[in-house]
Automatic annotation (TrEMBL):
Protein name: Uncharacterized protein
Family, similarity comment: Belongs to the short-chain dehydrogenases/reductases (SDR) family.
Parts forming coiled coils: none
Gene3D superfamilies to which the protein is assigned, alphabetical: NAD(P)-binding Rossmann-like Domain (3.40.50.720)
Matching InterPro entries: Fungal_SecMetab_SDRs (IPR051468), NAD(P)-bd_dom_sf (IPR036291), SDR_fam (IPR002347)
GO cellular component: cytoplasm
Pfam families: adh_short
Species this protein is from: Penicillium alfredii
Amino acid sequence: MGSAAHGFALVTPASRGLGFAFAQQLLAQTELPVIATARKNCNEVREQLLSSSGVSRGEEKRLRLLEVDVTDESTISAMTETIRHEYPNTPLRLALTLPGILSVEKSPAQIDSAAALESFQVNALGPLLLMKHLSSFLPKRSAPAFPTTDSSSSEDKLTLPSHAIYAMMAARVGSVSDNASGGWYSYRASKAAVFQLTKTFDLHLRTRSAEKALAVALHPGTVRTDFTREFWGGREMLEPADSAGRLLKFLASLPPDVQGGRGRCWDWKGEEVYP
Ligand SMILES: NC(=O)c1ccc[n+]([C@@H]2O[C@H](COP(=O)([O-])OP(=O)(O)OC[C@H]3O[C@@H](n4cnc5c(N)ncnc54)[C@H](OP(=O)(O)O)[C@@H]3O)[C@@H](O)[C@H]2O)c1
């Protein structure tokens, strides 16, 4: 693989946590070029990814690290300019956008305007701007389907479908219908936006790309990353590699037809999270 017809995969951000696990698994389990982003220390992140489990040293040509901070749109457009230049005529086959920060507010009195604004900027505006700059890389309805690997591929490889997938990390706590405990105002509200962005973007793709590309939102479960550090020990958690592996398999199995679940939010078990 590796020719333009097979497309490229993108994970943003991939510096740590779930994004790192997704990038690692895409390097280990596919032959696609993998573009990963970090806000800083791109060389270090690249080295960590190349020395992580399952990734052989020969994969270095497939991995490109680019600097993106979603609060600075110019870094997003610089990323897409680089992609256009370095991967000419190569469509986006699998995108995972995951920027997320948590500002914990237990009561309205604890809401801090600057911290809440930053949550919205990273968790809601971040995915919106990524979508703005990346959407043109997704195949149009007239584009050829992606070639798929044959059935002889081994079990530890990910078999990607012939359409493109644009996945955005939401969170179960962004679901209004699931909200039974309150709190976390800015995180909940900013992640609720991701459900809406996904549906709206998918409606755009239904027209522009038909069954050649879909958008979907994800909930990873409660995962042992820096994000949940203050709750470690208190409850059972998934490891990032488990959650990323389950989500990748789920994404690869999601059909592109309108009844198949596109435009909605799915968790790591493949169960729907309603908005
Ligand atoms: N862990 C869970 O249980 C859980 C549950 C539900 C949803 N999620 C969602 O899953 C996603 C990944 O979470 P995680 O658990 O992997 O968290 P994490 O380990 O804390 O990673 C957060 C990531 O977001 C990046 N980030 C923060 N601000 C950014 C910005 N301005 N621009 C670009 N990237 C930025 C961080 O980059 P730096 O390394 O540069 O800081 C880091 O890569 C988040 O959207 C989170 O809301 C996680």
